[in-house]
Amino acid sequence: MQSCTYLIVGASHAGLAAADAIRMIDQASPMILASRESHLPYSPTILPYVVSGRSKAERTALRSEAFFKEKNITFLRSAQLQSIDAEKSLAHFDQGTSIRFEKLLLATGAVSSLPAIPGLGDVAFHVLRTMDDALGLKTAMMGARRALVLGAGLIGTHAAENMAEAGMKVSIVEPEKQLLPGYFDAKASGLIEKAFDGHGIDLKFGRSVASLKPGVAVLDDGQEVPFDLLLIATGVRPALTYLDGSGIRIDRGILVDERQHTNLPAVWAAGDCAQVRLFQSEGTGVAGILPMAALQGRIAGQGMAGDEGQKPFPGAVSLNTYSFFGQQAISVGAGISGADSPGAETVLRFDETAKTYLRLVLKDGRLMGAASVNHPLDPGILWQLILRQTDLSDVKERFLADPKTTGRLLMSRLWR
Amino acid sequence: MGAFNSLTYNSNICIGCGECMMACAKAKSGDADRFDQSRIKIVPAGDNKFEAALCRQCGDANCVVNCPAGALTKNAASGVVDWNADLCVTCLLCTVGCAYGGITFESSVGHVAKCDTCGGDPACVKVCKSGALGYVTTASIYNDYGKQEDLFAPGLAACQGCNSELMIRHVLRRVGRNVVVAAPPGCIPGMGTVGYNGKAGAKVPIFHPLLTNTASMLAGLKRTYERQGRDVTALALAGDGGASDVGFQSLSGAAERGEHILFLCFDNEGYMNTGMQASSATSFGSWTSTTPVGDKLQGKRTDAKNLPMVMMMHNAAYVATASSVFMEDFYRKLDKALAASKQGFAYLHLYAPCPSGWRFPASLTIDVCRLMVESNFVTLWEYTPETGLVFTRPTDKPKPLESYLKAIGKYRHLAQEQVDRIKKLLEDRLVLLKRFVR
Ligand SMILES: Cc1cc2nc3c(=O)[nH]c(=O)nc-3n(C[C@H](O)[C@H](O)[C@H](O)COP(=O)(O)OP(=O)(O)OC[C@H]3O[C@@H](n4cnc5c(N)ncnc54)[C@H](O)[C@@H]3O)c2cc1C
Ligand code: SF4
């Protein structure tokens, strides 16, 4: 049986950040990085670009075999974690492999969640979460003309754009009344929708699919939408059946404290599989975005290696950048996707002809959120201003007039 | 991972002229007026003050961590965070990671952009008139000399935080194996350089002369080598006690005769390894075990003898003062001194603040070295008979002397009139030194 000091399951952003953080402190102790993927580590975020052809699948690797060798990390491919025996510190993988660990990080991310639609089991459909999904979708696109996308979130809109650009006739069905609900308000989404309209994408808002038959979706208003390719992008969720019987506590994700520690002393969890504190609201949730996965992975790795420089996870902040048809949108923080919350101060600059939009939301002189379309911002600086709850009273006028320059000024000062 | 060169920005002296942005825009896009193309962004901060947003080439960079495309990598050779346009998909996740505005997106540019230090020759620094932008290349010195063999044994027992050990290792790395070293009594042999526990302390010939005869023994050895036709560097690693007190006679004689010696004095202002007694190099007001603080005495009553000035008056082939905070300056002077010692007497005076004897935390040695120079407590200069004296660090805008004195325990008791006397002394000395500038 193999044994190691550090066992990391999942070789994506959270797992890789943890491995890096551990190797900063401890270059020697045996480390195994196990992934159920047959590929070298890659990011799920790159997949829309693999589908569009902008990225070549074979050039998406985030680490090479040489890297693992140099860092003294055993990279195990095609190894799916099946169960954990915490008492014996054993992780059981498929094909009968077991690994004894001293410290275990669960960084298994999320999978696409499937809606309960009658008939879904009888139709062929695609999701987009893994490299094999992306390659499968790319192949399927070659033989298809009409695509139907369920869900107008970041993944659905991205994939819809890919397919429209490939010359397909695309429809999106979304129960909410706009694209990217939760990230943008109706005005900002309206600008994005214009680009989608302009590329012939049919947006069916306020509707959902009532049932599916091969080649046809029946919507809740009775309309029938024919398709040769169906993509389901209605959300993601952690897949945690491997934790059954392990004693590790879960809710919507694996429950962790602010140091990514689970309820078991030798087990940590990070990234899209972990349920963490939220910075701007009560309670906990799965952050579901790359920067949070990487940050949590680093914190977990630091904890596993005993790095004294470890700082607790401050809480998840919503941070999204979104490119569509050569345009850019940014959504950072809270209070930017709906009506103004009580006590909040909003500044909105919207120019429909210039296709620019900017919304800044302050509360008690501090930044809550910012959203923009074709109006460049420095999201990393805005994130820091939110986390540090920087008092903007003194520079408020300037900040609202020019958040980019003023943000740079503030951070240049704050970092000294 | 080695040390890296880096761009520095000093907001205190930036005048906001924007020349750097124009130079950057020109270098990156060919058009100096395209400010959007500049990777350095100077932003007005009010009251004629300015700040900068610029890539800091982080060691563990968040933009790299956030990139899903593998388009950003920390270059292990240059230290620059490299951006690969082929791999980039313009997802902007890197801009989410950066808290400095160091990697940014502009619609008019169409892709993310960041500073690449122009391949190690930054265009912005060259046009900065105020000196706010700098390109510190000290790192390459550490990398280059880090590759040379360390000619002292590991495990020398200098006090924690002592910069003398650091500096003697640098010196021998540069001087190389073709050397004979004299280490008279003091901290340097005390830490084991001449041997300890029956083992050699250095991988080169090293001997332990008396405090009194270092320069004359070395002169004799050097002459013997020359007679044999061998070009061996004669190097003294002495303390200030061995150089300016009882060792002074032989030192002065060797300088007067123009012996081909490289004499290094590590000035820690006293006899530190034997219990912190005062030497003639101990500064006025210093607490030492022989100049205590009590009812009668408030530290040392006399001013320090300024040995480098005295050595300059010998008209030696090369005389200079150096500090371990300005390593480029130090190495330049060491090179010159080494060359000069082939024809005449070369004297290099190194400031060596002593955490144990001066009473400051061991972690602050380098900061103390810096304050010492920046407050004009000591000045960095070099002298040759041909050029006269040349200051190698500006002396016109010194930090308050108090900032230096307050950092050090041996001055804790100083009364205002003592501080005033030191100030006056330093001012007078500067005036005097300036007279030697041609
Ligand atoms: C199409 C798409 C676009 C996206 N775009 C963005 C974006 O623009 N911005 C953004 O911030 N985020 C984006 N995301 C989300 C982002 O990719 C994730 O938040 C991030 O990848 C989470 O990293 P992770 O390491 O926690 O998990 P994952 O990246 O999901 O990796 C988990 C890994 O664990 C492996 N694994 C799972 N279970 C097991 C098991 N039992 N045994 C062994 N291995 C297992 C998986 O195969 C996978 O390789 C996008 C996601 C997708 C799918
Ligand atoms: S914009 Fe380019 S460099 Fe930045 S994270 Fe995305 S792919 Fe990487």
Strand order of the largest sheet of chain B: 10-9-11-12-14-13-15-16
Largest sheet properties of chain B: 8 strands, mixed
Which structural category do the helix and sheet elements of chain B fall into? alpha/beta
What shape does the CA trace of chain A take?
A: globular
The CATH topology of the largest domain in chain A is given as FAD/NAD(P)-binding domain
What does this structure look like?
The complex is a heterodimer of chains A (416) and B (438). Chain A has 416 residues and is α/β, with parallel strands linked by helices. Chain A folds into three domains: 2-109 and 238-305, 3-Layer(bba) Sandwich (FAD/NAD(P)-binding domain); 120-236, FAD/NAD(P)-binding domain (3-Layer(bba) Sandwich), CATH 3.50.50; 334-414, Enolase-like, domain 1 (2-Layer Sandwich). In chain A, 25% of the residues lie in helices and 28% in strands. Chain A is built from ten helices and 24 strands. Chain A has helices spanning 13-25, 47-52, 65-70, 131-142, 154-165, 186-198, 290-305, 379-387, 396-401, 403-414; strands at residues 2-9, 31-34, 73-76, 81-85, 90-93, 98-106, 111-112, 146-150, 169-174, 202-205, 209-213, 216-219, 224-226, 229-232, 236-237, 254-255, 267-269, 274-277, 284-285, 319-324, 327-333, 344-351, 356-363, 366-373. In chain A, strands 1, 2, 3, 4, 5, 6 and 17 form a seven-stranded mixed beta sheet that branches. A five-stranded antiparallel beta sheet of chain A has the order 20-21-24-23-22, sandwiched between helices. A four-stranded parallel beta sheet of chain A has the order 10-9-8-14, with helices on one face. In chain A, α1 links the parallel β1 and β2 (31-34). Chain A is globular and about 65 Å long. By secondary structure, chain B is α/β, with parallel strands linked by helices. Chain B has two domains: 6-136, Alpha-Beta Plaits (2-Layer Sandwich), CATH 3.30.70; 148-434, Thiamin diphosphate (ThDP)-binding fold, Pyr/PP domains (Rossmann fold). Chain B has 16 helices and 16 strands. Chain B has helices at residues 19-29, 62-66, 93-97, 123-127, 138-147, 163-175, 187-190, 214-227, 240-244, 248-257, 307-312, 327-340, 355-358, 365-374, 401-405, 416-434, and strands at 6-9, 41-46, 49-53, 72-74, 81-83, 103-105, 112-114, 133-136, 179-182, 206-207, 233-239, 262-267, 318-323, 346-351, 381-384, 388-391. In chain B, strands 10-9-11-12-14-13-15-16 form an eight-stranded mixed beta sheet, with helices on both faces. In chain B, strands 1-8 form a two-stranded antiparallel sheet. In chain B, a hairpin with a 6-residue loop joins β6 (103-105) and β7 (112-114). In chain B, α8 (214-227) runs parallel beside α10 (248-257). The longest helix of chain B is centred in the last third of the chain and has 19 residues, at 416-434. The mean pLDDT of chain B is 96. The interface between A and B is large, with 42 and 32 residues. Bound molecules: flavin-adenine dinucleotide (FAD) and iron/sulfur cluster.
